[in-house]
Protein 1
Amino acid sequence: MPDILQHLQTRNSAPRLTAPGPSGEQLDELLQAALRAPDHAWLRPWRFIAIEGERREDFGEVLERCLLRRDPAADASVRERARAAPLRAPLLLAVVACLQEHPKVPFYEQRLSAGCAAHAILLAAEALGYAGIWRTGDAAFDPLVGAALGLERDEEVVAFLYLGTRDGNPKNVPALQPADFLSRW
Ligand SMILES: Cc1cc2nc3c(=O)[nH]c(=O)nc-3n(C[C@H](O)[C@H](O)[C@H](O)COP(=O)(O)O)c2cc1C
């Protein structure tokens, strides 16, 4: 089987990540892959925000503050989890859908395109020997978090990609049967 096919068929998210993360040059490589996402009318309806190093701590404070706005009664452990979330990987990449009015390309398609870009980044990260996981959660949909990231009114976070070196062994990939997901019309 060609390597690339095996690579596509075995991608495996990594919930636990550690240093090192992709270098600046490698981040460029990841984004080159993202920029080949299928894109109706070439709207380029995506952008990416890297959060790394000490900025992860600053972003953790944002997450905790926004959590408290959503849920003022959040207890200490939930607050701590929010504050520490960005520290779970050396590189956090927010994938943002930049939604544009277009007569033939509804927002739905633009969100899908941003999702394809996110997937391409995960695949490219594995190709470079790293690993990652796509997370969202309440923070991704919180307009206050978006504002802190500098999002415009028509922009949305579709993914927080946690990227770094896999910590521990990959889980077993479930043996799913293509036939169970295929019908013929
Ligand atoms: C849009 C989207 C949002 C997700 N959000 C989360 C999340 O917030 N937390 C989480 O643990 N997994 C989340 N996942 C799932 C993981 O990224 C991953 O797919 C899952 O752990 C299964 O691992 P696998 O991709 O190796 O099969 C999300 C996946 C997608 C596509």
Note: Strands lie at 17-18, 46-52, 91-98, 131-135, 155-166.
Protein 2
Amino acid sequence: MDRKNETFHHHIRWQGGALNWETWSTRAAAEYSARQIVRPGETYVIEEFGEACMTCGAIRVKTARAGK
Ligand SMILES: [Zn+2]
């Protein structure tokens, strides 16, 4: 599968379904950060998103309204 033309990024999804709003460009970087901030006994999965990511879209709208 050719994925060169689309930009992918990663989020951490915590146990229980909450999605971390931070983005990582590689799965390895997301894994590394997750290991630093995960709570004892908590689990997570690294999920890959394309350009239509709803989480990042929501952040962009908020940032624009703040007049950054
Ligand atoms: Zn995203």
Note: The pocket of zinc ion is lined by residues 9, 11, 23, 49, 53, 55-56 (CB under 6 Å).
